[in-house]
């Protein structure tokens, strides 16, 4: 559902229909929460779902931050568009995670990647930030945006660095049982 809403969300923003863009974004966020709740509650988590869910998150967030960073897309409100450094940090984190996971999988075959609490918080912060940015575009309020940008950037940076250390720890834990069985 989220992936299907991305083109509609992007189109609404690009053509200046900010309220509809906000509505599509909120619907995407709500469906993500409902999907996750039902998958965990009814033990319906699948391997495909664990792959597609973060991809949908990344596509939605990347699309949102890129469009919200473009000049002349949002109304002329103070602190808009989103500064480029915020978008680069958000997307850079995702690229770092993708590169690290791909390299480790290719070279070691390790696939035990798990989302961390900090990573989940970073995604939540991004969703809330995009919502606040869209509210700013709709309502013209923007006093809170510099703080929002700083928090998004801080969480993206910290969760990216944390991810590298977490994966190293998980790989070490995965190697210990095989080392013990070699003895």
Would you write up a description of this structure?
Helix 1 packs antiparallel against helix 2 (18-41) and helix 4 packs parallel to helix 6. The chain has helices at residues 2-14, 18-41, 47-69, 84-108, 117-139, 145-182. With 183 residues, it is an all-alpha fold. It is globular, with a radius of gyration of 18 Å. It has one domain: Four Helix Bundle (Hemerythrin (Met), subunit A) (Up-down Bundle). Helices cover 80% and strands 0% of the residues. The N and C termini lie far apart (50 Å).
Record keyword descriptors for this entry.
183 residues, mainly alpha, Four Helix Bundle (Hemerythrin (Met), subunit A), globular
Could you give a short account of the major beta sheet?
Answer: none
**CATH class category:** Mainly Alpha
What is the ordering of alpha helices and beta strands?
A: HHHHHH
What is the average of the pLDDT values? 89
Output the radius of gyration. 18 Å
Tell me the structural class.
mainly alpha
Beta-strand content: under 5%
Straight-line N-to-C gap: 50 Å
H/I helix tally: 6
Could you please say which CATH topology applies here?
A: Four Helix Bundle (Hemerythrin (Met), subunit A)
Q: Total strand count, please?
A: 0
Low-confidence stretches: none
